[in-house]
Design goal:
Structural class: mainly beta
Shape: elongated
CATH class of the largest domain: Mainly Beta
CATH superfamily of the largest domain: Immunoglobulins
Radius of gyration: 34 Å
Strand order of the largest sheet: 2-10-9-4-7-6
Strand content: over 45%
Largest sheet: 6 strands, mixed
CATH architecture of the largest domain: Sandwich
Distance between the termini: 40 Å
CATH topology of the largest domain: Immunoglobulin-like
Helix content: under 10%
Number of strands: 48
Number of helices: 1
Amino acid sequence: MGMNRLKAALAAASVLAATLLLGTAGTASADVPIEDYGKYVTIDGPQGLEVGGDWGVWTLHAKNPNGVADSKDHLVFNAFSSSDEQQLQFQVRTGTGGAWTDPQVQWSQMSSWANDPQYLASIDVTGAALDLAPHADTVYQLRARRLATGTKTEPFETGFSAFLTPQRSPDGQPGAWIAQAGVNVAPLGLTTTLQDLPTAIPADGRARQFTVHMTTANQADWHLGTASFFLWQGQGVGRDQGPSTCDAELDVLDSATGTWHQVGLGVAGVNAYTVDLGWAKGTAYDRTLTARITLGGGFKATGDASIGFGYYPGSGETDYFWEQQPLSTSNVSGAPACAGAHPGATFHATTPTRVLDTRNAIGVATRTPVAHGGTLRLTLPAGKPIPAGATAVVLNVTATQPTASGVLTVYPDGKPRPTASNLNWAPGQTIPNQVVVPLGAGGKLDLYDNSGGTVHLIADVTGYYTGDTFGATFNPVSPARLLDTRAANGVATTTAVPAHGTVHLQVDGRAGLPENDGYPVSGIGGGAVVDAVVLNVTATAPTASGVLTVYPDGDDRPIASSLNWTAGTTIANHVVVPVGADGKVAFYNNSSGTVHLVADISGYYATHPSGAYFHPIAPTRLMDTRTTGAVPAMGTRELDLAAGTAVPANATGTVLNVTVTQPRTGGFVSVYPHGTTLPTASNINWKAGQTIPNLVTTRLIDRKILFFNHSAGTAHFIADAAGYFTS
């Protein structure tokens, strides 16, 4: 196996280094004194030592089988490794029951190479020459432990050796030694597992996302500068040099920045990604590394191919931190020859799921509202429904019971708080807005209450993005109205939705959407299946306050909200919702009164090879007319995404959080691509003097976006980018 070849090469290098440093047994000259013949030393003890764990004990025997006494040799213990005095601690004692004492340790740095410094720890166990009586077996014990430390030194395998020698050189090495014994002691305490990585991966040019889970048993700081991925194509493929950059690509997600880094291709395969496993002292360490692998059409593998990840401790005798699994592959007709650069993230729709409600201690420990100027750190529960490795999430966030006007900013934990806003409210108001936001390290988000009072927050997950190509891609359509209960559009009558009534809206096959019946498209994989639709949903003319829940038709109705209103208001919200198996979406009116509903579509997510991939970004302000002048009544403002903005030139669409503020009269805004006709669809509805946001997804044609003010008075518009799409 390729892994065994790599280990054998490293083991041979290790043995050669030890031979050059320590000499070879039996190097005594032909005129060795008679009292030295047959003397030997042994060292017995564990072959592993837990980093940050308990002591390990080794027993040293110095034996003199001769009938002649010896009083000139010292019993010397040496430890040679990359671990310095900050990581190894020693104690010795006479026999097996005496008191432990701290010996004098002579430290020497044998190599100062930054990537692999070598140290020698030398101990004169007895402190003086041994008095070895005839036929004596003198016993000493040495114990050692690896300390938890914050240094960058790697916990590398250590060679423990015991010598009988009449002298030591100034650096602690034995001189003309008489007898020697040794044992390799590996660092323990790190468990590595591969998760969600299939053993069969087609060579089809599509990325598969998986995770590497690393857990330690204690507080030790691991800094694994040589941790690496390994991709072995099997015996007889190429020249044992690993795949070419065309054949395979492997990327690792940097959770601190939300960006993907391509891992280099080395002699043994895909490797050379540095992993730093440092963390706060006193906290049990548990870390997940997210990666994705893409095999191009040119990738070949034989029956013994494998893939793995790990940290190689030294000798090659034991895989202490390696985790690998078999890999089989098959070529796919029409697949791209090369793995190529990964295009971006794909979407996974979920049934709306509540992950935060400060009123009911969901996602938080208490029922206390968020304090003014306070930040709520939300850890999304892994797998419920967001899996490890998700790069961004789609939430419907609702503010309720605020005691003062305010603004909410949602952003990745661990990143600087942006100036952008996601939600605006007035005292006592309940208002929602959909948010698309990258995830911080560990799947955490920060929600900042920029107000003079307290506020309760609610968040429902409706989907997430991953860095593989097995989710859904975005397919924009010209804004079109799918539902208007006032005009019998999407329903049979013009009757308002009754209290606690449900509208079952057909979406598949309308407004340019394919039907979920194997609709033929070009490319790999056959047909397109609509996973979710992007809607702007408006409630108007409600006779009582209420909540709207939008969910896949045929599913159980979730405990989640998509839109909140008060009696007599008109309010809209951006909704991304999975499509039911029957091609329909359900709208449930959770109120005691009637309400009219309007739904405009701007695109859909589908397993469609030619769709667009998403790139989430931290909220970034692109436009604020308060600095350039209000938009006049029935007027248009153009947003030019020129070079230098957060949206690149190759973007085919964008996701914006648009806020209307200081409007002179009631009205609504339509946001649409430059170069197209003004649609009848609306994105935000407002009353005079109101500040209100909404998420907007729009395609791009020439990098320009138009905002049309459908009102009799001026209004200000603010636009913050949450991400963009590329083909």
